[in-house]
Design brief:
Layout lengths: L46 E4 L7 H6 L4 E4 L12 E9 L8 H11 L5 E8 L9 H15 L4 E6 L9 H4 L3 E4 L14 H12 L7 E6 L17 H14 L5 E5 L16 H12 L42
Parallel strand pairs: 1-8, 2-3, 3-4, 4-5, 5-6, 6-7, 7-8
Helix pairs in contact: 2-3, 5-6, 6-7
Amino acid sequence: MRTHHFAAIAATAALAGGVFGYLVHPSAGSASPVVPVAAPRHTSGTLHVALNMPASDRTRAAALGFNLFDVGPDEIDALPKDGRALVWVGNTTCGGFDLSADDFGSTVRRLARDPRVYGWYLSDEPNPAECPGIVGQIRERADLIHRYAPGQKAFASLTDWPMAPLKPSATHLDLIGLDPYPCRSDASGCDPKAIGTMVAQAGRAGFARAMMVPVIQTFGQACSAGEKNWKLPTSAQLTTILSQWDALLPRPAFDISYSWGRQSDWACPTLADSPGLQQVMKLHNTRPARRPSSPPTTPDPDPTTGDPGTPGPTTPSCPATPDGHDGT
């Protein structure tokens, strides 16, 4: 079973985010062209992906409304009916990319006309302070997507490290993930204001809200062998988390549930362990698409007070900790 691994990271601020990172994925395989297939049928609105999901669970997850799947380049044919692919080919923080720039370009060209490919997961928690070359590497790959597969998205996930070096004009990304985890194991409990803190930070870094992808906390660490910093939300707490995301990003391109499956050091229990949370996510995933409305005219809220129009302090950066690539 091939799994994707997020790594939880200890933040210096009370309202800290998490970090996620992947293991090596299958090689790109043959560069022969793909025969176009019929586009998956979807109602308009947000797509939904849950990470760390074994292939054997995809059909069950599809019944809960998950319709976007993070896969390697050669797993697309195994997706559930009408499922789409967020193809992982990237790097974690300062690690190497799964595919070289040349191999990545040939893989994009091979899959450019496959309508099941929604986009490309290019980087997970890139940290320009530690690896300044990462910005150019992301931009190079994003430009290849825009050149050869202009209908597909260039995506990376960011945490509460400084985001300004990764601004759209520097990376040419189409979408970014934001991963504040409101429910902690310590006395602070669940604090949904962590979501507003990171959304405001991304806004100050130059990212429009239309580019932002929510990363929804569906994990805890009560049974993990490593970190014990986060707790699994209750159904009521998850509902509150989803409401906070809805208030700030009402119609994202997609959203991410972290995590579906367990990781021995980083995520246990998870969404797969909780029928109650699965039902909350099913209601969220299968509700009718929200009607567009006029964009907000007020500035981002102050992340410390919630008051509009007052700039908040920049979220402190996170010191790196060992990631969760434990092979389980």
